[in-house]
Design a protein that fits this description.
The protein is 51% helix and 9% strand. By secondary structure, the chain is an alpha/beta fold.
Length: 358
């Protein structure tokens, strides 16, 4: 699969217009076809994996933008992850990649400690590592929203990585170990429905597991995106909010293009929070660009920062001073530089929790 995608993508420009790294770095080498061409050249013996070519290999953000704009559905991000695995096995990856892998393997999270889960319920909330370690206030607000609609949940995956980060960096066996641990925890909770807080985790459970790790989500357990779930409760009148009033710009989170079914529901929540539709960025919905909340923050922090700043600049051009987003990882990276652009970052779930009424 990896060789086929590399060959098919090396001279194809179909996704070039939507490729985020090429836009922010102004370097054709780090566009999808440029990265594929470097990999194909190594396969042909025309290049070696050296610090320069490895830097190109690790410039791909693994957010799905190229695949989302490919009519032949080439799995280039998965192909690049497979090549990274071979590079890592040969000891040729950047030192920072091995350092973050050591932390992932030791703690189960790139950002802190994983906590043990306890308790059981029909509905479980997969918290994840970004929400627990980077935006704990977001988790508190989610609990408040679920209490408001009288849904009891068993929190699981507290501080846990689904395996996405390890897989993206080039360590599929570590990713598989983490994935199986997540599924074991889900089974132990006895839940028939799992609510997923972050788009990256929804992608991992639905797509990454079967396509890259040969793992299947349990067919008897319903997997539901939290924003979609809350939008449905809002439509039914189960979730009731005080009338919102405000002006803000909504930012589609990292991995948005991989979860297009969320585009509508999350905007319905924004409408309810603001009392009007939010302003929109140019790079939105199926062409939404990521911020630096991927493996890039460890392997290519220069690109991660450039992506985040480009999103803030896009937001500033809308004229709003307040940005809304629901994803913990995206919010964390936006907040690092938002003040430099005169922007304030608000978590959508936090905002909704302040508007909830009995």
């Amino acid at each position: 699969m990896s060789a086929t995608a590399i060959e098919n993508c090396r001279y194809c420009l179909m996704c070039r217009h939507a490729a985020p790294v090429g836009h922010v770095m102004h370097d054709e080498t780090v566009t999808p076809h440029g990265i594929a061409l470097v990999a194909a050249s190594v396969n042909r013996g025309l290049l070696d994996w050296n610090p320069s070519s490895v830097d190109v290999l690790y410039a791909e953000p693994d957010t799905g933008n190229c695949r989302a704009h490919c009519v032949t559905d080439q799995r280039l991000p998965a192909a690049i992850a497979a090549i990274r695995a071979a590079v890592c096995a040969e000891g040729l990856a950047p030192p920072s990649v091995y350092q973050i892998h050591e932390r992932l393997a030791r703690t189960g999270s790139a950002f802190g400690e994983r906590l043990a889960s306890s308790g059981a319920a029909d509905v479980a909330l997969f918290v994840g590592d970004e929400a627990h370690n980077l935006r704990p206030a977001c988790v508190t607000s989610v609990y408040a929203l679920l209490r408001a609609i009288r849904v009891e949940v068993a929190p699981i995956g507290i501080g846990a990585s689904t395996g996405y980060m390890a897989c993206s960096l080039g360590f599929p066996e570590t990713a598989r170990t983490q994935a199986l641990a997540c599924l074991e925890e889900i089974r132990a909770a006895g839940a028939r429905k799992v609510l997923v807080l972050a788009p990256v985790d929804l992608f991992a459970f639905r797509k990454l597991y079967p396509e890259r790790l040969d793992i299947t989500w349990p067919p008897d357990i319903e997997l539901v995106d939290l924003a979609t779930f809350l939008a449905a409760q809002l439509a039914k009148g189960t979730l009731r909010l005080c009338p919102g009033s405000g002006d803000a710009t909504y930012i589609d989170p990292t991995h948005a293009v991989r979860t297009p079914e969320r585009f509508g529901p999350v905007r319905e929540l924004c409408d309810a929070a603001l009392g009007q539709p939010p302003r929109e960025l140019f790079w939105r919905r199926d062409r939404a660009h990521p911020v630096g909340s991927t493996a890039l923050q460890f392997s290519r922090p220069d690109i991660a920062e450039a992506l985040t700043r480009a999103r803030l600049e896009d937001a500033r051009r809308t004229g709003a001073s307040t940005l809304l987003c629901e994803d913990p990882g995206t919010l964390h990276h936006l907040e690092r530089y938002a003040s430099e652009y005169g922007l304030t970052i608000h978590g959508l779930f936090n905002t909704l929790a302040t508007l909830t009424r009995a």
